């Protein structure tokens, strides 16, 4: 082999070895770091949506309960808070708990907010903040269908009454002279106690009692007038103005774009009252 050919072959070999060494170094670095080189991009990345933990007690149909077929949480409150999250920019993580523990969970920041048919009252407002009202409710008396002696709140003096613990129903029942009030954890237990003869009546929220009867429980009936008309609100820990603002703006948006009305009609079969969240109902002429 000629001298110039030897020199040329040697140069090719050196270049080849240098190329292999470079490839080996690059592969080693990629594997060690666990990352791959990506082309540079301009602009800033979009931050991920926050996830808010939402407390509820899931035996308060039609506001929140478990679907018997799927086991998933469903109801008016569930649809509403998810819709608020969609327009306000946050995801929802449901946390089920006893109703009497919800306010404490908010005060200790174990949850970000709560929607569980919670009536806005002065005592609760000392412990948590409330959104604009999203539902108007009231309390009613339920008795066995064959009971023709109890006709409303005025007939409950000295009677045995079942209520859900920690609710405005419990507060109202305890005002009745001589009443023996039994506080239970879950709404279905109230009606079971009534059916079994353990109590004379149940005091509970009108829409929940009406929904229970509509599900085929014709052995129960509502008697008398609605008492203590009240609003439901979404509860937020104090000192969280940014969360409160998101909830309120979300409610206003849903009211304006018709989604609130659609959700309301889905669960209650009628148009919602003609008032904006946070405003009293319009007086009928």
Automatic annotation (TrEMBL):
Q: Where is this region: Disordered?
A: 26-49
Against Pfam families, the record matches this protein to: SBP_bac_3 (PF00497)
Solute-binding protein family 3/N-terminal domain boundaries: 51-271
Q: Which UniProt keywords apply?
A: Signal
- Gene Ontology terms, MF aspect: ligand-gated monoatomic ion channel activity
Q: Which residues cross the membrane?
A: none
- Where does this chain mainly localize? other
InterPro entries per the UniProt record, alphabetical:
Iontro_rcpt_C (IPR001320), SBP_3_CS (IPR018313), Solute-binding_3/MltF_N (IPR001638)
Location of this chain's protein in the cell: Cell envelope
SUPFAM superfamilies in alphabetical order:
Periplasmic binding protein-like II
Region forming the signal peptide: 1-27
Gene Ontology cellular-component annotations: cell envelope; membrane
Q: Does the keyword Signal apply?
A: yes
> Boundaries of each Ionotropic glutamate receptor C-terminal domain copy?
51-270
Ranges of Polar residues compositional bias? 26-48
UniProt lists the family membership as follows: Belongs to the bacterial solute-binding protein 3 family.
Protein name listed in UniProt: Glutamine-binding periplasmic protein
């Amino acid at each position: 082999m000629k001298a110039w050919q030897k020199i040329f072959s040697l140069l090719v070999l050196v270049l080849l070895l240098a190329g292999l060494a470079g490839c080996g170094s690059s592969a080693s670095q990629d594997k060690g770091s666990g990352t791959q080189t990506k082309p540079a991009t301009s602009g800033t990345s979009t931050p991920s949506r926050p996830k808010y933990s939402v407390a509820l007690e899931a035996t308060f149909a039609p506001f929140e309960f478990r679907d018997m077929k799927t086991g998933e949480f469903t109801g008016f409150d569930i649809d509403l808070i998810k819709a608020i999250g969609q327009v306000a920019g946050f995801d929802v993580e449901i946390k089920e708990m006893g109703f009497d523990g919800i306010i404490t969970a908010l005060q200790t920041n174990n949850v970000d907010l709560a929607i569980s048919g919670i009536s806005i009252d002065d005592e609760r407002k000392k412990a948590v903040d409330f959104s604009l009202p999203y539902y108007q409710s009231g309390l009613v008396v339920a008795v066995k269908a064959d009971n023709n002696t109890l006709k409303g709140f005025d007939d409950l003096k000295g009677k045995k009454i079942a209520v859900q613990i920690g609710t405005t129903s419990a507060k109202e029942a305890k005002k009745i002279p001589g009443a023996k009030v039994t506080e239970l954890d879950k709404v279905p237990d109230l009606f079971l106690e009534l059916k079994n003869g353990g109590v004379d009546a149940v005091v509970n929220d009108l829409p929940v009692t009406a929904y229970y009867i509509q599900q085929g429980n014709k052995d129960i009936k509502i008697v008398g007038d609605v008492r203590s008309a009240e609003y439901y609100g979404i509860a937020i820990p104090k000192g969280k103005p940014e969360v409160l603002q998101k909830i309120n703006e979300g409610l206003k948006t849903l009211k304006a774009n018709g989604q609130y009305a659609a959700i309301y009609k889905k669960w209650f079969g009628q148009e919602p009252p003609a008032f904006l969240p946070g405003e009293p109902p319009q007086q009928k002429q």
